[in-house]
Amino acid sequence: MKFGHFDDARKEYVINTPKTPYPWINYLGNQGFFSLISNTAGGYSFYMDARLRRITRYRYNNVPLDMGGRYFYINDNGTVWNPGWSPVKTELDAYECRHGMGYTIITGKKNDLKAEVTFFVPQNYDGEVQQVVLTNEGSTAKDFSIFSLAEWCLWDAQDDCTNFQRNFSTGRVEILGSTIYHVTEYRDRRNHYAFYTVNDTIDGYDTDRDAFLGSIYNGFDNPETVKAGKASNSFADGWSPVASHYKKITLAPGETKTLIYILGYAENPQDKKFASTKPEGLLTREAWVLNREKADAMIEKYNTPEKVAAGLAELRATWDNLLSIFKVDTPDDKVNRMVNIWNQYQCMVTFNLSRSASYFESGIGRGMGFRDSNQDVLGFVHQIPDRARERIIDIASTQMPDGGCYHQYQPLTKKGNSDIGGDFSDDPLWMILSVAAYIKETGDWTILDEMVPYDNDESLAKPMLDHLDVSFYHIVNNLGPHGLPLAMRADWNDCINLSCFSDTPGESFQTYTNPKFKAEGGYSKIAESVFVAALFTYTGPAYVGILEHLGKTEEAAKAQAEIDKMKKNVMESAFDGEWFLRAYDANGEKMGSHECEEGKIFIEPQGFAVMSEIGKDVGADIKTLNSIDKYLNCEFGLVLNNPAFTKYYIQYGEISTYPGGYKENAGIFTHNNAWIICAEAYAGRGEKAFEYYSKIAPAFTEETSDIHKTEPYVYGQMIGGKDAQNFGQGKNSWLTGTAAWNMVAISQYILGVKPEFDGLRVDPSIPAAWDGFKASRQFRGDTYEIEIKNPDHVNKGVKSLTVDGQAVDGCIVPVAGDGKTHKVEVVLG
Ligand code: BGC
Ligand code: NOJ
Question: Is the pLDDT assigned to residue 42 strictly greater than 90?
Fold first, then answer.
């Protein structure tokens, strides 16, 4: 069952009912100011950091779920309704929500009055513009009133939802004309404020939430002021400040009225916080006067429909440009829609926000993740390589001199987060991968010379190459009894905690260290991760390639020897006969072996082991892929492990705390499904690769939206696995490494257009039924118009490749570097 449809021409998903199985959201903003907006206009805004600069309030885990947002209420002769249906939930005569690239348009209609609201954050602008177009579609004149509503968060989102003894007394606002300013704590230690304005005169306002609602017993669905058709002109003094504009409107038949609201954020330098004169009409309880120059300039920028149209056009052009860098035309519309629009869009969002703020990540828990943000670069680097470069350097700056990494850092301070600390065994490797991806995309080798601090300490700065070096050797220098990497606190799977042995509720599986390992430096020197071994052998060659390019032959050979040794160690101690083991636990026992009672096979190490060709000579790759198909494959994707754990295994940690079929315990973790898709494509098995791809790609799950629940245009982290009662149900949508990895899987492995150090590889692995496909790829300043022909209906194998009619050996298109368009023709067979 569907709740809408894709409008590919406009790059939108069109939702046709407010009652989606879960709030279906979009993200507005690309640089500093961000908003989350659901299909009923729920959600919130923040500047840079969802925890430390929260602008509007949102209550997670609320009942009903999605309550709180930017709401417009209309009172049309006693009928009160919202264009997005919620919160009043009056049945509408028509409803539509269009989520597009950085904007959302919600249209509601009731009793011949139509309200179309466009929400967007313009490029390089710290505010959300909301354009409301009201049209009287009836044959008689209409008198009605419209109320806006935004509820301020007192900046620190964590404090805002816990520290009521203070916060109920600190709230501060000011009002000047049609603009309501939020200035809590501005007098003392803060230099930022927010404002909510409308480009017209108003007939009243409210700034105190309880006055707006009329009673502390009312919810947002029942505001007395709106019902009474009149604002109460409340001036907030502590409690919960809000911003609500009230306006009376009369529309003749066919007449339209446009109002532009702006929710903005501004910072003043310390010495310019205050204005010297008090504007006439300013309503304030303060002795000082806010310097509102920045807000004035921001308001001026979008105070007419023409300016709004120009802002929207600029946003659309930005996205059209970003999405023109890589475009495909395949026989499958759903593939086209994922690759050309939604997957790339989601990659930008994950790049911007890492795992911080979604409808499943509260924005107060985590900043940017070391492993997460490095992986996000993989799917995004072709879009804005400069920002990827900056990000890589920010991340690398938090690294420790020995190659260890802070697991997370705050986007506002860019400092490593010492509450979480480090010792996640996989972290350093992802940086090798992201730096390599950046160089392969851009050919910009100078990033390796960039001086990058360790532990954010400039005096410890070393060239980026040194960071790669310590990353690589951090693995080599931390091996266990079988010569495999130590598992430490966790690897990619945060929930395999082999040194935790936690028996006390509330201990964090990621940060708690069992005292028995304290003396050993915090984690077991026995527990080893086969996943990290396979990631090392997959990633290592990129490091070797970099050294070779730099003419460092000796270092390259030394690194290669370590990779070879690791492969040997894996084959000797970690191949289980039909697949690769997952780990050795702290007791030296195998995890993920046919000998185990539960959790006999895990997905994570398999894909990277296959792509590293570990044991390929003895058929380990195909055996492994077949085992995945046999034990992990199910209707909605590949589960993470099988059989699911049915008891708590103290030696394994968090993984065995989840009921079977959810999250890391046999859920369908779409992130590592992508690694298997890559591996199947790598092995030339285009049918399987495509089968797995189509099981999880959102455009394909659209048809089962009622089961899947979450947005059909973006990936979620997890789908309930075959052991779950809610098999097929999606969760944790938007902020997941799946976005980047599935972009890699479809574009570089299935469609096979893959940047390499020395050119653009074109080597697809597709369903045999395809006659071929076309792709257009901007690469290092040139454009390649690629046409793949598949006359023999094979899965993989480049029979011939020509560039502008000239035959090229192999499948790497050399870099032309002339800024022109080149025609690449590839015949498979
Ligand atoms: C979740 C993981 C997450 C980790 C760290 C765990 O509870 O299951 O998916 O990565 O917490 O926040
Ligand atoms: C989500 C985390 O953000 C990611 O870093 C981790 O790899 C996966 N969960 C698996 O545990």
Answer: yes
Per DSSP, the residues of 219-253 read -TT--HHHHHTS---B--BSS-EEEEEEEEEEE-T
**Does pLDDT of 366 surpass 80?**
no
Q: Output the pLDDT for position 519.
A: 86
pTM exceeding 0.85: yes
- Residue 664: CB within 6 Å of ligand 1? yes
- Write out pLDDT tens, residues 131-190: 999 999 999 999 999 999 999 999 999 999 999 999 999 999 999 999 999 999 999 999
Closest residue to atom 5 of ligand 2, CA basis:
372
Does the beta carbon of 361 lie inside 6 Å of ligand 2? no
370/396 Cα distance (integer angstroms): 9
The active-site residue out of 156, 376, 427, 494 is 494
Counting ligand 1 atoms within 8 A of each CB, the residue from 493, 495, 512, 640 with the most, and so the one to mutate, is: 495
CA distance 591 to 652: 9
* 428 within ligand 2 shell (Cβ under 6 A): no
Residue nearest atom 3 of ligand 1, based on CA coordinates: 494
Give me the percent of the chain exceeding a pLDDT of 70.
Answer: 100
Can you say whether residue 687 is alpha, beta or left, with left for phi > 0 and alpha for psi between -120 and 50 degrees? Answer: alpha
How far is residue 408's CA from residue 427's CA, in Å, rounded to a whole number? 10
* Tokens at 204, concatenated: 């009243």
Atom of ligand 2 nearest to the CA of 493: 11
Residue with tokens 């520290």: 163
Residue 494 appears among annotated catalytic residues? yes
Asked if the model's pLDDT at residue 196 lies above 80, the reply is yes
- Calculate the alpha carbon distances from 111 to 26, 108, 267, 424 in Å: 28, 10, 43, 59
Question: Rounded to whole angstroms, how far apart are CA atoms 24 and 739?
Answer: 17
719 CA distance to ligand 1 middle (Å): 15
Encoded amino acid at 131, one letter: Q
